[in-house]
């Protein structure tokens, strides 16, 4: 009908689209993007769902960008396009982390180190990349794996002075044109998206509402890293969803809120008092809390071993057995 708002639809049209997806077998694959982290996907409705906004938060230095990049890699490797907006890292730095991530997973000798791969890129001797990576355990195989999905993982060098919501939308459209399908969108990180507001609350409200609208409009997930208030960064304090920097709109608009904490900082002290050997072991684990979950149960907690020397997390999460601060029960 002429003059009808293009945003209007009917339940009948929605039912027809759903029926078409189911008849063609595209329903599950088209609506859910797996994180690839064992134990997490079943808790959030099978994975990151189309039209949803997922916030990933945590103290500084706990691997939020690494966790997000690993999710991006997992999806690109499965053949689905990913658009990663990076406000803090350039493409070469992220490529080095991908190579370390792949080599670390492949190498059973546990000798791969991200610093070694970075030094190969910085070395002045003239040689091809595959030849240089021969000195890294599983380095050549890692390069082959990255090359396999390299054209599906789009990296956008974003800045707080020019990359606003309109620029993000424009880049999404460009990738959709190139890839032929809508990408998973990763924003690293949300508080650096350019805004017309100077007030933190107004700024965060504009950005989080814009990202939520984007997720719905493109019918794909948006994974955004969120910064914390300064008070939440104090060592020994457990960060929660109400510690996100900015307005209350962040937690309200998000469909899923994930918070990373260092296990050593948030485990109940009696686990350290009676077994001092736990201290170093706990430092090697990040605890992931599902603080909000519109697609399942919230409050679930998983732990993942950190391998930041290899630019990655171990992919398989396990239940936390110890008591954590701010909790009054033991997990068994």
Describe this structure in words.
The chain is of the alpha/beta class and 332 residues long. It has a domain at 46-257: Rossmann fold, CATH 3.40.50. The protein is 38% helix and 17% strand. The chain contains 13 helices and 12 strands. Strands 3, 4, 5, 6, 7, 8, 9, 10, 11 and 12 form a 10-stranded mixed β-sheet that branches. Strands 1-2 form a two-stranded antiparallel ribbon. The protein is globular, with a radius of gyration of 21 Å. The termini are far apart.
In CATH, the homologous superfamily of the domain at 46-257 goes by the name P-loop containing nucleotide triphosphate hydrolases
pLDDT averaged residue by residue: 88
Name the helix and strand elements from N-terminus to C-terminus, one letter apiece.
HHEEEHEHHHHEHEHEHEHHHEEEE
Q: Rounded to an integer, what's the Rg over CA atoms?
A: 21 Å
Largest sheet: 10 strands, mixed
Low-confidence parts lasting 5 or more residues at pLDDT below 50? 327-332
What is the CA-CA span between the terminal residues? 60 Å
Q: How much of the sequence is in beta strands?
A: 15-25%
Count every beta strand, where a strand is a DSSP E run of 2 or more residues.
12
CATH architecture of the domain at 46-257: 3-Layer(aba) Sandwich
CATH topology of the domain at 46-257: Rossmann fold
Helix count, DSSP H or I runs of 4 or more residues:
13
Q: What's the CATH class label of the domain at 46-257?
A: Alpha Beta
Write down the overall geometry: globular
What percent of the residues sit in helical stretches (DSSP H or I)?
Answer: 25-40%
Structural class: alpha/beta
């Amino acid at each position: 009908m002429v003059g009808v708002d293009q945003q209007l639809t009917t339940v009948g049209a929605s039912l027809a689209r759903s029926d078409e997806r189911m008849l063609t077998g595209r329903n599950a694959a088209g609506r859910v993007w797996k994180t690839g982290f064992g134990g997490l996907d079943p808790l959030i409705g099978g994975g990151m769902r189309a039209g949803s906004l997922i916030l990933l938060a945590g103290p500084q230095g706990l691997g939020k960008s690494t966790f997000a990049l690993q999710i991006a890699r997992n999806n690109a490797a499965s053949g689905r396009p990913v658009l990663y907006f990076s406000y803090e890292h350039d493409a070469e730095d992220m490529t080095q982390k991908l190579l370390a991530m792949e080599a670390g997973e492949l190498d059973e000798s546990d000798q791969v180190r991200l610093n070694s791969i970075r030094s190969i890129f910085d070395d002045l001797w003239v040689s091809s990349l595959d030849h240089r990576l021969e000195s890294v355990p599983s380095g050549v195989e890692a390069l082959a794996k990255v090359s396999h999905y390299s054209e599906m993982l789009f990296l956008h060098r974003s800045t707080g002075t020019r990359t606003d919501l309109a620029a993000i939308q424009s880049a999404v459209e460009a990738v959709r044109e190139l890839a032929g399908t809508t990408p998973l969108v990763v924003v690293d990180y949300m508080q650096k998206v350019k805004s017309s507001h100077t007030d933190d609350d107004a700024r965060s409200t504009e950005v989080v509402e814009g990202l939520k609208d984007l997720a719905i409009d493109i019918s794909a997930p948006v994974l955004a890293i969120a910064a914390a208030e300064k008070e939440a960064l104090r060592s020994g304090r457990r960060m929660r969803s109400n510690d996100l920097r900015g307005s209350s709109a962040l937690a309200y608009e998000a469909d899923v809120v994930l918070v990373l904490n260092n296990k050593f900082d948030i485990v109940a002290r009696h686990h350290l008092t009676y077994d001092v050997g736990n201290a170093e072991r706990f430092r090697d684990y990040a605890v992931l809390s599902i603080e909000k979950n519109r697609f399942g149960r919230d409050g679930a907690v998983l732990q993942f071993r950190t391998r930041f020397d290899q630019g990655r997390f171990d992919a398989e999460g396990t239940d936390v057995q110890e008591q954590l601060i701010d909790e009054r029960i033991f997990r068994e």
